[in-house]
Specification:
Chain A: It is found in: Cell membrane. The complex is a heterodimer. By secondary structure, chain A is mostly helical. Chain A contains seven helices and no strands. The two termini of chain A are about 25 Å apart. The chains are: A mainly alpha, B alpha+beta. Chains A and B meet through helix 1, helix 3, helix 4, helix 5 and helix 6 of A and helix 1, helix 2, strand 1, strand 2 and strand 5 of B.
Chain lengths: ~170, ~375
């Protein structure tokens, strides 16, 4: 129960911080904090919990006030990302986190291209995605470490050593 | 094995739920499921966002100060120069004031070009490069804001309201790839459509103008105002949008395409206004800023930007934040224009592009050399 509350709290804080602080910094590209938190939680807690957390986090992104697009787009993306991160995280936690952080933006655009008709696909992949991926890449280990830290203090779970392979 | 099967089952259910959400959201719009959900989210997250903005305002101000530091000295010089200029102009303005008053009375146009505006502050921003670009502002249905109202700031058009909560509302920006606004070239009747690009591609921070008549000559430096629609929704007429910066050759196409730089600075939106009542008649070009023909207009623009913002802020502080009273007249800009140069009062006859003055000033911008007409 405490773990679930912690997850909900983390996602909520990440959402608010993302839209009120990160997105308003006068730079073009910022890391996607919510995505990274979901990935970190999924890596720590496994594929099932990852998928559920991803689903609800995505739903929250979809209905977060300055929202204009189709309901359910991020729900789908985050759910899949949570599952994949959890699945890969069983074997190679850090690689899983980084890989998901890099690929998720492209996946979001792909889903967006399928369900909406703005037509932004390829230009985005060529021009913006490398920067977003780089940003996420840099921020992912930090978020992973921070979330893991919080979990260790709260839950007394068997802890993963932050390494390339599970020991 | 059992555990893995359970995981797959639940994943399947969740994905199916997501797809159902997408379908329902597509078909029902805001009416069915999305409406109540978003209402709840609006009140919960809106409150949290407001609180967070209040707490972190000094931090973000510090960051914007840090990024603005290199240009600060330049700006101080520019402001000093402008201050001297303004002082000398003030004397002339006193003389002109009497004349303009007379002129106004004679023409009976005093109410023209006036937007009734509710001032608001941007509290949150959603920006996925290439996909969306929305902001949240701190006024809502309680302040008289409704869907499809125009949002502008001291420089020009910002966007339109797409959703309102009790005390916050969502604004889709002009640079969002999904937004489109009717536009008209200054001093003529050529119509077009302005689309956002959302930071996508080579001219990401510009907006795209498609002119419906492909025979009209497009020139760099021509200015665009909003065209307006019935009852002033979603865009009221006559709001300055931007200035054409690059014309693209599109042989064989039915429309002409150009890229324009918006007047509003979308990187640092702060105080904006929601137009709650459109002007009675289309003010056409009268609200456009001065022609940038003087030397060093870049600095001047910056200075003006600053000035406009501080004025807005003053106004905002002055107004009590109640629903009916929080109204300001933006049309003063137009009046001021008329007051300064009464001989040019009728905007539309200031036709044509800038007379060569704009070309040299753009020369310092990289990537402008290949501009063709």
């Amino acid at each position: 129960m405490a773990r679930n509350l912690l997850a909900a709290f983390l996602v909520f804080v990440a959402l608010v911080v993302q839209v009120t602080i990160l997105n308003r910094l006068p730079v073009m590209v910022v890391p996607d904090l919510v995505l990274l938190v979901v990935i970190a939680l999924a890596v720590i807690r496994g594929p099932l919990d990852g998928a559920v957390i991803g689903f609800f986090a995505g739903l929250a992104i979809d209905i977060l006030p300055p929202a204009g697009d189709v309901l359910g787009q991020y729900t789908l993306v985050m759910c899949v990302v949570g599952f994949v991160a959890g699945k890969l995280g069983e074997h190679v936690p850090l690689v899983a986190g980084v890989l998901c952080a890099v690929l998720a933006p492209a996946f979001t655009v792909a889903v967006g291209g399928l369900v909406t008709d703005d037509g932004v696909g390829w230009t985005y992949i060529r021009t913006v995605w490398p920067w977003v991926a780089l940003c996420n890449l840099v921020a992912a280990p930090v978020v992973l470490w921070a979330v893991r830290r919080l979990h260790r203090e709260r839950g007394r779970q068997p802890v993963l050593v932050p390494s390339w392979r599970r020991i | 094995m059992r555990n893995s099967r359970r995981t797959r089952l639940i994943l399947g259910i969740l994905l199916a739920a997501a797809l159902v959400l997408i379908t329902v959201g597509h078909r029902g719009g805001d009416s069915s499921v999305a409406g109540p959900l978003r209402q709840i989210a609006s009140s919960v997250f809106g409150t949290a966002e407001q609180a967070s903005t209040k707490v972190t305002a000094p931090v973000s101000r510090f960051f914007s100060m840090l990024t603005g530091a290199p240009g600060a000295q330049q700006r101080i010089d520019g402001l000093r120069k402008e201050n001297a200029q303004l002082r000398s102009r003030l004397a002339a303005a006193e003389l002109d004031k009497g004349r303009s008053k007379e002129l106004d009375r004679m023409l009976g146009l005093s109410g023209l070009g006036r937007y009734r505006v509710v001032p608001a502050q941007v509290i949150a921003r959603r920006h996925t490069a290439g996909l969306e670009d929305n902001v949240e502002i701190d006024v809502g249905s309680r302040d008289g804001v409704r869907r499809d109202m125009t949002v502008l700031n001291g420089d020009g058009l910002v966007g339109r309201v797409v959703r309102t909560g009790p005390s916050t509302s969502t604004v889709i920006l002009l640079t969002d790839p999904g937004s489109a606004a009717g536009a008209r070239l200054e001093g003529g009747n050529e119509l077009g459509v302005v689309n956002g690009l959302g930071g996508n591609g080579k001219y990401g921070d510009l907006i795209r103008l498609r002119l419906l008549d492909s025979t009209v000559p497009l020139k760099k430096g021509r200015r665009i105002v909003s065209f307006g629609s019935q009852n002033g929704t979603p865009y009221v007429p006559g709001v300055p949008i931007g200035e054409i910066e690059r014309v693209v050759v599109t042989p064989g196409e039915l429309t002409r395409t150009a890229y324009a730089r918006p007047y509003a600075n979308f990187a640092s939106l702060d105080v904006v206004g929601v137009v709650v009542r459109a002007p009675d008649r289309d003010p056409r070009d009268a609200v456009l800023p001065d022609q940038p023909a003087k030397a060093n207009p870049g600095k001047k623009d910056q200075a003006k930007d600053h000035k406009g913002k501080s004025k807005d802020r003053e106004k905002r502080q002055g107004d009590a934040r109640d629903a009916s009273g929080a109204v300001q007249e933006l049309g003063q800009a137009a009046q001021h224009d008329r007051a300064a140069r009464p001989d040019r009062a009728g905007g539309p006859d200031r036709a044509g592009g800038p007379d060569g003055g704009a070309a040299p000033r753009r020369a310092d911008t990289p990537g402008q050399a290949e501009e063709r007409d």
